[in-house]
Amino acid sequence: MQFLLDPTNWDTSLPNSIPNLFFDHVSLTLISVGIGLLIAFPIALLVARFRPLYAPVTTFASVLYTIPSIAAMVLLIPLTGLEATTVIIPLVAYTQIVLIRNIVAAIRAVDPALVEVGRAMGMNAAQIQTKVVLPLALPVIIAGLRVVVVTTIGIASISFVVGVPSLGTLVFQGQTFAYNDEIVAGAILITALAVGADLLLLGVQRLLGRGQGTTLASAG
Prior knowledge:
Blueprint: H1 2-5, H2 18-49, H3 54-66, H4 69-80, H5 84-108, H6 112-120, H7 125-156, H8 168-176, H9 180-219
């Protein structure tokens, strides 16, 4: 714990200080998950509507997920250089399989009777999706998002391989200089970030779940 308690390691004027590395790690995660959602959401809506597309789309996403993260980053260096983009591209690719499967499952789990209620109220297709299907599907979507966020936080830890700072930099530096306390500090901070993010999303999921119950009761 000596490394964590040393005030010097919390000095924001130092590029590899704990606050700066924490911010870098969070930025990589948020950008990757955000872009992943922007890509996966329309694909999932399309797949949920046209069922024959499900197998080829999820197969392709699964293949992307099997590519080793370090290998993907190294292969991207000639194209994107030693920049955050080299880390973000693989992270976005890895989010797709979980997000697409989860969003499709959430949409298909919505009670068709509630969709019919929406139609009976005069809603068009877009209104049914935005006012009926998506609100009811959100708790399940958030459950998948929890998996994606925690996984992304973990994989982002190896960004130091291509010279992009993150909390994993502490682990790398600790190994390089045989400083076990720094390795432990890095592991603790990465774990704390993952657990904190998961608990935050769990709270959102439960809140939406309670709201869903109210929506279902009113619709009934």
